[in-house]
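> call design_seq(struct)
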């Protein structure tokens, strides 16, 4: 989605490398991977020995980690792997050009799951079922049946399209709330908040009303005090996004979810469903977003996810809705003034306790020159070595077993990430107010009731993945721009957006 700004913990990465078989930092010593039933990667890949496999993806630290350790696959198979890394827009352009031009440059691609409909409708991807059924290519120990992935529902939305498997998850990611626990847990601030608002300072805020009050409370001018210290700069209660950019679209989706709204009501991303971007709940959500924006840093209409993360990283905001694959932005002490002082919780609740499903896939183009070899590489990339090293620098593995590892469990964002991506079913650890670190699912969020269900589970919400989804994104961004710039009121802007949806979908 965006560039992560560093390694979470250099020491943790070193421990992870040692645990995964890393060497002295300059060279790594690997053992040949063997599998049950006599299957070996070397034997399976023997027909392609000496050849080159070409792969393209967005330049993210987890992909950079893959590029660094691909030498193991190369050593075992005798195949050279070339990984091209660019910004997201350039990756999409190059991928589309390869598909449309039928140039057959890439044997594998890394793709956001919301592109599934476009790629499948145009017959650009190979379904993976044939590889799973080929005993010569399918590692018998590589079992992706129920339970192998962190969450089957998440996997179905990310890697499948209309009942067919088209990818293996590069990662499962989600947006949730980052907050400065050192500020929220501070007794001076707790006393001041109680005196002003008449209830205890929530750490973290769980409801949208609590988010509004705490954002208002912590928005202060230079010269005022925070936790007893004089501020050298203005500080803001929350950081939001308003640029006409996909980052704002994601923020808008998440505020819709908080209020129980959807842009289109459908169970699965490939379904068209009912247009509801202008429903009463959606109007309430956007009115809330606009009202909340007065407590975020100046320049909202220019703010994207990089701007938002930087505000958290630099200590300019005490709270934000951010991606879990961007945790390195605040946990790397070399680049963040608030390293070690951030905790992680779910999105605030108004009418629903929910999380948006998001992910990227390893996919094999239908015109790949070496699809079988690509499949062997993808199986290897889903293995323990790769998954652990990617997690150590901000990855978000979709493999369930990775989260049994005690090193991975200690990563500060992992308990909340796992809790959300399993719909509240898996709890690795819990954080109470006053705990000295940000590790664990906050107890208050864990126990919060979902108004839509009456229990404490988290609704996993699918976004459109049908072929027209980009046009839907653009329409929402136009409406959001008009609302946030005061060009239009919320209801008329969303009515206009709904009419655009109807034109795009033409009765579908």
């Amino acid at each position: 989605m965006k560039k992560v700004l560093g390694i979470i913990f250099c020491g943790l990465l070193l421990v992870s490398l040692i645990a995964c078989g890393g060497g002295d930092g300059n060279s790594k010593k690997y053992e040949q991977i063997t599998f049950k039933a006599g299957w070996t990667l070397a034997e399976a890949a023997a027909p392609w020995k000496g050849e080159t496999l070409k792969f393209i993806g967005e330049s993210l630290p987890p992909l950079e980690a893959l590029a660094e350790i691909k030498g193991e696959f190369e050593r075992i198979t005798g195949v050279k792997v070339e990984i091209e890394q660019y910004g997201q827009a350039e990756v999409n352009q190059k991928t589309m050009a390869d598909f449309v031009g039928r140039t057959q440059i890439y044997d594998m691609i890394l793709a956001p799951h919301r592109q599934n409909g476009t790629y499948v409708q145009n017959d650009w991807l190979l379904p993976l079922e044939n590889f799973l059924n080929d005993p010569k290519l399918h590692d018998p120990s590589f079992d992706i049946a129920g339970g192998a992935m962190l969450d089957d529902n998440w996997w179905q939305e990310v890697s499948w399209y209309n009942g067919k498997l088209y990818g293996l998850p590069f990662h499962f990611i989600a947006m949730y709330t980052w907050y400065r626990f050192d500020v929220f847990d501070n007794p001076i601030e707790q006393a001041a908040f109680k005196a002003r608002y008449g209830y205890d300072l929530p750490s973290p805020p769980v409801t949208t009303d609590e988010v509004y009050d705490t954002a208002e409370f912590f928005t202060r001018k230079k010269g005022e005090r925070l936790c007893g210290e004089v501020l050298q700069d203005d500080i803001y209660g929350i950081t939001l996004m308003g640029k006409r950019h996909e980052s704002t679209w994601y923020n808008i989706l998440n505020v819709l979810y908080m209020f129980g709204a959807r842009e289109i009501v459908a169970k699965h991303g490939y379904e068209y469903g009912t247009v509801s971007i202008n429903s009463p709940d959606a109007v309430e959500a956007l009115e809330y977003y606009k009202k909340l924006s007065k407590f975020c840093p100046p320049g909202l209409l220019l703010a994207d996810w990089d701007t938002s993360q930087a505000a958290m990283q630099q200590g300019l905001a005490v709270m934000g809705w951010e991606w879990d694959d961007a945790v390195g932005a605040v946990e790397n002490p070399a680049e963040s003034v608030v390293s070690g002082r951030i905790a992680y919780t779910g999105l605030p609740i108004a009418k629903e306790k929910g999380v948006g499903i998001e992910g990227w896939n390893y996919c094999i183009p239908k015109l790949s020159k070496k699809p079988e070899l690509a499949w062997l590489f993808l199986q290897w990339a889903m293995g323990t070595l790769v998954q652990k090293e990617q997690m150590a620098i901000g990855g978000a593995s979709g493999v369930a077993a990775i989260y049994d590892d005690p090193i991975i469990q200690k990563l500060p964002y992992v308990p909340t990430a796992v809790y959300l991506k399993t719909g509240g079913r898996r709890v690795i650890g819990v954080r109470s107010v006053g705990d000295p670190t940000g590790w664990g699912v906050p107890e208050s969020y864990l126990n919060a009731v979902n108004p839509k269900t009456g229990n404490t589970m988290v609704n996993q919400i699918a976004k459109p993945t049908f072929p027209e989804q980009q046009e839907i994104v653009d329409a929402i961004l136009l409406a959001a721009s008009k609302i946030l710039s005061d060009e239009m009121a919320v209801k008329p802007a969303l009515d206009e957006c709904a009419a655009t949806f109807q034109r795009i979908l033409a009765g579908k």
